Amino acid sequence: MNTFKPFKMASYSQNWPTNTATVMHSSNPEPFSWHELEALTQLDLKQILSDCPMAYESTQGSPHLREQLISAYLPTLKTNDLALTSGAQEGIFLVINSLIEAGDEVLTFTPCFEPLVSVAQEAGADVKLLELDQNNHWSIPWQSLENAINDKTKMLIINFPHNPTGSCITPIELERLISLCEKQGIWIFSDEVFRGLEHRNQSRLQSVAELYSKSVSMGVMSKSMALPGIRLGWLATQDLKLMQRCLEIKSHLSICQSSLDAHITTHILPFTNLILKRNLSIIESNKEIVKQMLVNHSEFRCSLPHGSATAFIELTNHPAEDFCIKLLKEEHIFVMPGPAFLTDHSGFRLTLGKHQAEPIYQTIFKSDY
Description:
Layout: H1 8-15, E1 22-23, H2 34-41, H3 45-50, H4 63-73, E2 82-85, H5 87-99, E3 105-110, H6 115-122, E4 126-131, H7 142-148, E5 153-159, H8 171-184, E6 187-191, H9 208-211, E7 215-220, E8 233-236, H10 240-250, H11 259-268, H12 272-294, E9 300-301, E10 310-315, H13 320-331, E11 333-334, E12 336-337, E13 347-351, H14 358-364
Parallel strand pairs: 1-11, 3-4, 3-5, 5-6, 6-7
Antiparallel strand pairs: 2-8, 7-8, 9-10, 10-13, 12-13
Helix pairs in contact: 5-6, 5-10
């Protein structure tokens, strides 16, 4: 029988005194308020909701919304190459349990979003963790990756722009990853939930699902679009057999995504560029503030991110959990320590997506910590 263990992130949130704390580890930009979203898009959200269908959708999801998502994010694919999910967590579960059997080997990089590892382990995989190179902007350890691939390797899981470090890879590096996997027939599961949050002068990668037939790409409304209240994500793949297997498993879970979420998303998607511009404005401003605060700071260091809404702040003199619990108890600020991301590097994930964050950053980076 499968044993579903609590994620470390959930354990910290539940077991530490976080109820009255200011959360400063979120990976999404600050969520839109109802009024802010209306002001930005000029949509009448109340009217949109009043017109919403309240029936079931198909298991694969609204054809109209899937067509919109293909057009916006995966223009070389077809509508039936994409399925809607109830958020990213369901997407991870569907892909892993559709492809992985006990004894398969899975490769991924750390630090990382823990469910990308733990869901594979629960499915019986032997997951090999390869540390990104923190001394080179959290880059891919190419020699370690090539040495780790063998005849039992079934899947490589990647996530760029990266959570929690904000590192990115180039199109040439992506081609190299695909070539490595293609030679061995290895699946690529590409977590692309931060696609669209590439920082200034950083190119946006093409979706892996468009480039490689044995791949799955995952997106979601909660991260780059800053709308976590809309519990809607998607999976895209050229492999119709895999798509059918995902839908069979989905029929045992959510059955279908919320028709309300799908309806409102169809109206919001045309404003994607405006939404991303708002989100990146917050992120870039906060990144500059953090950069200035870290100048000549002996107790903290950071390879500044090139994408996403987070940075991984390394601690030079403190164990991560000790620092984070002290910050929480004394200042009521909650940042997420490195062990939540399956890394031994002492540090914590810090959001760059919060409005009016400078006073909070000042408290976090006080010299007496």
